[in-house]
Amino acid sequence: MAAAALGGLGLLRGRLRLRLRLGASSPSSSSSSSSSSSSPLGRGAVAARAASGRSYGSEAREEEELRVRYLDDEHKGADLKERAKMHSSEVGSFVSKARATINEMANLPVPTIAAIDGTALGGGLELALACDIRVAASSAKMGLVETKLAIIPGAGGTQRLPRTIGVSLAKELIFSARIVDGEEAKSIGLISHVVEQNEAGDAAYRRALALAREFLPQGPVAMRVAKLAINQGMEVDLVTGLAIEEACYAQTIPTKDRIEGLLAFKEKRPPRYKGE
C-alpha cells in the first residue's frame, strides 16, 4: 500500500506529514503492502510508506512500521510558481491527475491522518482534506488561496472544505483566500486536534502517531467497513444511510476477526486480529 502523493498544484512548505496506518485492509490491499512506493507531495514534504510484511496484530508497534523520509532535490518543488509556468495545454491534464490522486487517497480502505507541522496551502490542504483526520501544530498555516491567482481550488477543495466546515465558512475562506493558523483551524472544525509546536518541529506528527496507535488494535475489517459506512452515509439521506450501515454491519458478522474479538473479550485478553 503506497502513500498517495501530489506533485504541484499548491504550496506545501514546512512539514505536511501524511499518516497512513494500515489498521484495516481488504485482502487485496494486504497482498500489495510489501511493495510500497511514493511520489512527491510538495516542497519540504514527507511521504509515509508502510513497511513490508505488515501484520495485523493487536499490539501497536514502534517506528519500524512506518518509513518517513523528506523529499528533496528535484522532488521538492510543487508550489504555485511551478503551476504558473505551465502551458495552458498542460493545466487541464495536470489538475485532473491531481484530483484523481487525491480521490484515491480519500477512498483508501484504511484510516488516514494528515499531520500538518508547517504550511499547507492550495493542493497541500486539499490533500489533507482527503484524509479522515487532520492534526496541526498551532503555528501551522492552512488555506485555499487559489482565488488570489484568479483560479479556484481544482483538486476537491470546493467540495471537501464545505463538507468539513460548512458551506458559509468554506465560501468565506475561499473567497478571501484567507490563511488560518492551527488554533483558528481547530475553532472552525478544519482540523480535529491542535498542538503546540516543539523544538523538533514535529508535534503534529507525534500527535498523529498517538492517534494511529489508538486505531491499531481495532478489528481491520470493522475499521474498513466503518469508514465506508460513514463516507457513503454522509452523501445520502438518513434512511438510505441506515441501509448502508446495515449492509456494512453484515460484512462483519461472518469474519474470523469478529469471532476473535468476542473470544478475546470473554478471555479478558487483547485480540489478535489477522485482517480476515
Please tell me about this protein's structure.
It is a single chain. This protein has 276 residues and is of the alpha/beta class. Helices cover 41% and strands 13% of the residues. It is built from eleven helices and nine strands. The protein has a four-stranded mixed beta sheet, sandwiched between helices. A three-stranded mixed beta sheet has the order 5-7-8. A two-stranded antiparallel ribbon has the order 2-3. Helix 3 runs parallel beside helix 4, helix 4 (123-129) crosses helix 5 and helix 9 packs antiparallel against helix 10. The radius of gyration is 19 Å and the shape is globular.
Number of strands: 9
The helix content is 40-55%
What share of the residues does DSSP label as strand, in percent?
A: 5-15%
- The order of strands across the largest sheet is 1-4-6-9
Write down the secondary-structure element order: EHEEHHEEHEEHHEHEHHHH
Basic shape:
globular
Mean pLDDT: 74
How does the major sheet shape up?
Answer: 4 strands, mixed
In DSSP terms, counting alpha (H) and pi (I) runs of 4 or more, how many helices? 11
Unreliably modeled segments:
1-65
Rg estimate, integer Å = 19 Å
